[in-house]
Amino acid sequence: MCRQPIAPAEWDLHGGWALGDRTEWSNRACGLASLRMILLAYGREASTVTELLKLAVKHEVLTPRGALHSGIVGLATDLGVPSAAEPVPVADLFARLDGAPVIVSVTEQFPDDGRSGGHLVILRGYENDPTRRPSSETRRPGARHTVKSTSADCPLPAPAAPSPSRP
């Protein structure tokens, strides 16, 4: 299943054809799409997902199943957003979300082969209402995935001002 399809026009414009099959790479692009959203949230220059894929290939960040979490951290740090890859207990997740958006690995069921990875998405807040179950907003494949955030108690930190070189 293609969870983060890369648009054919973007793939062709940015030289994705040199990497091979667009659909195959799209199946492994969720971590890089998440990285792009984090970069944009902090006002950093953000390459297209295709350009980030090419960078990830160059730095050996990708495996046959997707991006290494440590590799995404390295790319994020190199691109101006200091980061860390670490397990976060569910009890500590709300405190993390108070400080910044977080890339998390989610799955309906862990694979039988012992892997613990899943689909990488951005969490950017939560509703501070213990009577409500966590909710997510998922659009059609390829669209952004978000957790609804309406609480004034936990706003997303103000992103940096856009770079003057951006149009």
TrEMBL record:
Protein name as it appears in the record: C39 family peptidase
Sequence ranges of Pro residues compositional bias: 156-167
Lineage, highest ranks first: Bacteria, Bacillati, Actinomycetota, Actinomycetes, Kitasatosporales
Compositional bias segments (type: Basic and acidic residues): 126-140
InterPro entries: Peptidase_C39-like
Region (Disordered) residue spans: 115-167
Start and end residues of each Peptidase C39-like domain: 27-129
